[in-house]
Fold:
Amino acid sequence: MSTTESTPPLDFIRQIIADDLKAGKNDGRVMTRFPPEPNGYLHIGHAKSICLNFGVAQEFGGLCNLRFDDTNPTKEEVEYVESIQEDVRWLGFDWGERLYFASDYFEELYQYAIKLIETGKAYVDDLSADEIREYRGTLIAPGKDSPYRQRPVAENLDLFQRMRAGEFPDGARVLRAKIDMASPNLNMRDPVLYRILHAEHHRTGNKWCIYPMYDYAHPLSDALEGITHSICTLEFEDHRPLYDWLVDNLPVPYRPYQYEFARLNLSYTVMSKRKLLQLVNEGFVSGWDDPRMPTLSGLRRRGYTPEAVRHFCEKIGVGRRENIVDLALLEYCVREDLNRRAPRVMAVLRPLKVVIENYPEGQVEELEAVNNPEDPAMGTRKVPFSRELYIEQEDFLEEPPKKFFRLAPGREVRLRYAYYLKCVGVVKDETGKVTELRCTYDPETKGGYAPDGRQVKATLHWVAAAQAVPGEVRLYDRLFTQPAPGEEHGGDFKADLNPDSLEVLRDCRLEPSLAGARPGDFFQFERMGYFCVDAKDSAPAAPVFNRTVTLRDPWAKIQQAGKK
Ligand code: ATP
Ligand code: MG
Structure:
């Protein structure tokens, strides 16, 4: 059997790596890195980068490092460093012993800066931040040289050492590369390499009061780690000449190359960490791991599986063109995974009591229910059936419209795995609200089929009242009402927050098998969607379930429409 015909073509990154290997570059090594800045939790966009960097390393017999780009002491926290490691592991990737921090290289980076100064390729500038901006010019006007650009090497060395020694206040001086103030690429107009910042760093404490800029630290960290393919998102394309300039002008142990791909954008979602932090800080969500957040910790708590997220990343592929992926595709991926693996159970979210008048009081039958029709190996379980049950409020209408086929006065339906049930009476409270249904069942229809061939048009799920486990269920909807949050409000994404993104149902009735459910367990509640046990708020005596996704699949419809 040949699989070559069905193998999809390599994406451009994998093609480059395959070609490099064929050409014998890098001594046959493949070394990538995932370089998060620890200033927030990872989101689904990062998952694309993680799957790509760790994925290609695995596929080409290489290695992938986890490196924290912790060059900015003021925004970074240990909490983020820990959550990021947890999330990468959860996604299923392993950096082995290769956990690195850019801050581990501060001394080497400093020595490289000295080298640049000594070779006349960097200088200390006394211009203020505003003046530097002014001197830089614009896309259409060239910049002009700083009056400090021609400082002698010895003076630069002295000043840079004194910057490190803490002699100057924040912002007094910077170290700049001496490249070309007339370059058409603004990043090449003597970019700043070091700034003075008297701030405590989460790893180096107060050892340093000068900090390297990202554009300086990143290529050199890559070089120090022997990275062969430094994969990043397209906004760094214009920074590549600086990346190359640095690794070409310094005696680095390895010469890495940068390749850019299009970042993931998802409809109905914001992904910038700055925006996600606002949602957290301003209380629009309960935290970084709120199940409505596009963070990996939020998706995990919502019930997304790593398998589903990885499959999603595979499906969207890797290219160089910016686009917006439909959130429905992500939901499709989790639905597909859970459909295969989630045990089916019955749970009534908005209970309506049913009393079966002709069912013997005190009798309990154990009926056999299938755990997963997609996977017979998952077996069966027993569910109790008795005289008093709960069904879903929405499954009954006193005056049903034409297309409503579920329960109504005088009408017969099937109870899943049980019997035919007929509504013979309705009990209401003083406001006229239906509080109870009086019904009869047909003992001849055990298993849900009538020996006389009589048909019903609906099958309802149900839970036996006395044996039911009470629980809380949280229903989630998309966090934003618009596909591009903020677009119609001058960027104010919070104006498009969905006020109905969370509905909490506190009086749900679950089948007894759910009493043993543990945090992270997932289920299909028949007809209601996929749910998981909330990892934070659930307790054995008071279970809390999050709805991961509904059963409806809008993605299939979108695909159909696209084909027409
Ligand atoms: P954000 O813009 O969301 O605040 P960031 O780019 O500042 O994120 P980093 O911690 O620097 O976040 O990102 C680590 C890596 O993940 C980088 O290589 C970055 O290019 C990549 N990355 C970030 N967002 C996305 C995305 N939406 N799609 C693909 N890769 C991404
Ligand atoms: Mg970044």
